[in-house]
């Protein structure tokens, strides 16, 4: 799939999102539910801000010493019989993974949820070699059945679908004949998926956190699917972004708690799985062969830059769950597998400005995201940094905007010019404050864009200055 | 106490004089001597938030010079004060200006913050008979960290019947240039805000940031709804009928 989803233009995607009444209702409900639960579980912690500070410190320390911890992690995996591959690009990662699968003569692959495998388009790469890849996270499985509909949320990927739509998909693709009752739907999915779990020769997982000191991989789920996907198949491949690492189990303890609370408002999810190395003599389950693919895919270019804090992300989606823009346009409008505020920051870093130049502007800079982030990524500030780079480095700013900003700066740093402007403004504003009879706005450029949907207050003509001057002379005392 | 008023460009140019007048009169009633540096313009936020930081610096330097003499700078806008607080970062690579920027940032206050935190007053003796609700603007609460001051002051205004705004933490969709760059999204956001305001049955929406009030008020006007918009300075300056 890759980072980018779809080929439509930004505002076409936004229109589609805004007009999708069902999706919007689902997003509002999900935001209310998830944010409410998060607030409750963070209050239980008592001193949430201290936990955020500590979590930020852990993530910053890890990123500042990433080379050390990655090496430590890799050595520990290798010492215990695992294989580690550092993939610089999506292609390198996919080549390695398809080769492992080929060598095992495997055809059936069971997967647990992983954003990085979406990012590198791993499923497509495996399918091209003739493999049958099955997503075992319920949300992801629904999307996969529905002709590979892309995820619209990083934790709740099928957020945009209701139970009727899911019933329809099950019926169409798997001859499901029961009702849209969620219990019946889930039961059917379990029956279907059980066969895939049992027949899979290879299990592929993502990685919530990799523990450097022990070479372990940890996975956080509510469905237990990651545990099955790592115990039944003979071969396990774990794919992880290179920043997804913690020094020791002590830090893992803290960050897993922050992740579960921030993502779904649970103290812990139903399953927290920790996996170390391959099956040993006497073990009843676990893989006989274990591979870890550590994916760079643009991340090392972010390290050491002003955007480094974006790599602190633990993929909890708390920023998405409070974002007022996401609330109205939904995940697909972002045109990226990473939607919402973190998506608007990360997507241009991973995939360039060319296809994503609107994303940094798709925010009112209300800072709800920054406030919600459990690892204190200053998301709204990073969006402003993107805007700065777009202005100063890319040349992707229209002539009119450039001139307007230069004009603004001249006027707002020169009292005489400012006075001229302010003297002219009131009568101009008066002339365009209300809409045309057809309801459309008046004026041109940004003024028209404003007045298309809103009136302007009718100023009484730079009168504060006159009033103040007058009373200083004793006129109004 | 000597206070220099930073009026903000919206109160200066777009809004009628009453917001500035009320700010001056409230401060004077509380014993302040108010000075209005005539050379003041805008805080530079439109350029800053659009990524035009060179242009924003030009404006910031002008503002730093204009208010260098001031003991306190007080402004009827949380958002514009939060921009003044951004100046030291803006000049991070220029120690001389960073120092001057810090001096301005340290002595700048939003109006209600100044009244409660510096003047230590929570009852300004205002009276207004009205059903009201209050919009908590994002920059004032999240960037400036001022949450309680307006609520404390409003609680002591005689005659106010206050209903809390549902989803009050949610942005109204203004966002400066966002309101014209992303019109379809901004429209949905302000529509939801107006719906919540209607749910309170308030006759008056109070706010402490003219950007938000211009957006919400402009949408209310366009939709022909009977809700009046007032800046908190105007409320605090009300003396009953």
From TrEMBL, chain A:
Keywords: 4Fe-4S, Electron transport, Iron, Iron-sulfur, Metal-binding, Repeat, Transport. InterPro entries: 4Fe4S_Fe-S-bd, 4Fe4S_Fe_S_CS, FTHF_cligase-like_sf, Helical_ferredxn, LUD_dom, LutB, LutB/LldF, LutB_C. The keyword Disulfide bond does not apply. Residues 310-377 form the 4Fe-4S ferredoxin-type domain. Residues 70-295 form the LUD domain. [4Fe-4S] cluster 1 binds at residues 313, 316, 319, 373. One of its GO terms (molecular function) is metal ion binding. Residues 457-477 are annotated as: Disordered. It comes from the Bacteria. Is involved in L-lactate degradation and allows cells to grow with lactate as the sole carbon source. Has probably a role as an electron transporter during oxidation of L-lactate. This is Lactate utilization protein B. It comes from Salipaludibacillus aurantiacus. The gene is lutB.
From TrEMBL, chain B:
GO terms for molecular function: oxidoreductase activity. GO terms for biological process: lactate metabolic process. Residues 3-85, 132-216 form the Cysteine-rich domain. Pfam families: CCG. Transmembrane segments: none annotated. GO terms for cellular component: cytosol. Is involved in L-lactate degradation and allows cells to grow with lactate as the sole carbon source. Belongs to the LutA/YkgE family. This is Lactate utilization protein A. It comes from Salipaludibacillus aurantiacus.
């Amino acid at each position: 799939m890759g980072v980018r989803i779809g080929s439509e233009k930004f505002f076409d995607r936004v229109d589609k999102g805004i007009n999708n009444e069902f999706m919007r209702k689902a997003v509002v409900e999900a935001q209310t539910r998830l944010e409410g639960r998060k607030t409750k579980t963070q209050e239980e912690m008592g001193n949430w801000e201290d936990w955020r500070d500590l979590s930020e410190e852990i993530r910053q320390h890890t990123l500042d010493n990433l080379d050390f911890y990655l090496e430590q992690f890799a050595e520990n995996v290798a010492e215990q019989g695992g294989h580690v591959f550092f993939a610089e690009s999506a292609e390198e990662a996919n080549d390695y993974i398809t080769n492992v699968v080929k060598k095992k003569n495997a055809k059936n692959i069971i997967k647990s949820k992983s954003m990085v495998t979406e990012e590198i388009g791993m499923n497509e790469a495996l399918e091209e070699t003739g493999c049958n890849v099955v997503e075992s996270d319920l949300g992801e499985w629904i999307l996969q059945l529905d002709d590979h509909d892309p995820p619209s949320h990083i934790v709740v990927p099928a957020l945009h679908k209701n139970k009727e739509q899911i019933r329809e998909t099950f019926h169409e693709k798997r001859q499901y004949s029961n009702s849209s009752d969620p219990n019946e739907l889930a039961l059917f999915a379990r029956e279907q998926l059980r066969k895939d779990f049992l027949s899979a020769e290879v299990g592929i997982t993502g990685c919530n956190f990799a523990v450097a000191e022990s070479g372990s991989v940890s996975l956080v789920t509510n469905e237990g699917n990651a545990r099955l996907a790592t115990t039944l198949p003979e071969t396990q491949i774990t794919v992880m972004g290179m920043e997804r690492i913690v020094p020791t189990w002590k830090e893992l303890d803290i960050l897993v708690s922050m992740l579960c609370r921030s993502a779904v408002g649970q103290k812990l999810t139903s399953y927290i799985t920790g996996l170390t190395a391959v099956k040993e003599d006497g073990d009843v389950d676990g893989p006989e062969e274990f591979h870890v693919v550590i994916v760079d895919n643009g991340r090392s270019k972010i390290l050491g830059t002003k955007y480094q804090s974006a790599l602190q992300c633990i993929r909890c989606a708390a920023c998405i769950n409070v974002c007022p823009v996401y609330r109205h346009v939904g995940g697909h409008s972002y045109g990226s597998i990473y939607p919402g505020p973190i998506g608007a920051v990360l997507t241009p870093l991973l995939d360039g400005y060319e296809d994503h130049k609107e994303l940094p502007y798709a925010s009112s800079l209300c800072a709800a995201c920054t406030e919600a982030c459990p690892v204190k990524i200053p998301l709204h500030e990073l969006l402003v940094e993107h805007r700065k780079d777009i202005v100063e480095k890319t040349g992707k700013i229209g002539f009119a905007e450039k001139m307007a900003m230069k004009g603004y700066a001249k006027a707002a740093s020169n009292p005489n010019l400012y006075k001229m402007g302010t003297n002219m403004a009131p009568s101009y504003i008066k002339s365009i404050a209300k809409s045309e009879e057809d309801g459309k706005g008046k004026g041109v450029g940004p003024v028209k864009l404003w007045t298309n949907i809103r009136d302007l207050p009718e100023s009484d003509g730079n009168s504060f200055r006159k009033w103040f001057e007058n009373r200083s002379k004793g006129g109004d005392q | 106490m000597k206070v220099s008023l930073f009026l903000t460009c919206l109160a200066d140019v777009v809004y009628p004089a009453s917001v500035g007048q009320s700010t001056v009169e409230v401060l004077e009633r509380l014993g302040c001597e108010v000075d209005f540096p005539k050379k003041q313009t805008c805080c530079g936020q439109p350029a800053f938030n659009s990524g035009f930081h060179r242009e924003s610096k030009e404006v910031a330097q002008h503002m730093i010079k204009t208010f260098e003499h001031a003991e306190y700078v007080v402004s009827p806008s949380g958002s514009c004060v939060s921009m003044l607080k951004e100046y030291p970062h803006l000049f991070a690579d220029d120690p001389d200006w960073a120092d001057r920027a810090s001096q301005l940032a340290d002595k700048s206050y939003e109006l209600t913050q100044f009244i409660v935190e510096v003047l230590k007053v929570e009852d300004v003796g205002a009276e207004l008979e009205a059903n009201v609700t209050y919009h908590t603007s994002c920059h004032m609460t999240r960037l400036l960290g001022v949450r309680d001051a307006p609520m404390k002051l409003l609680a002591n205004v005689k005659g106010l019947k206050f209903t809390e705004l549902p989803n009050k933490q949610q942005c109204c969709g203004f966002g400066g240039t966002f309101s014209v760059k992303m019109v379809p999204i901004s429209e949905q956001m302000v529509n939801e805000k107006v719906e919540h305001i209607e749910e309170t049955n308030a006759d008056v929406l109070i706010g402490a940031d003219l950007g938000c009030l211009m957006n919400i008020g402009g949408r209310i006007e366009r939709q022909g709804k009977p809700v009046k918009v007032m800046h908190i300075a105007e409320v605090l300056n009300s003396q009953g009928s």
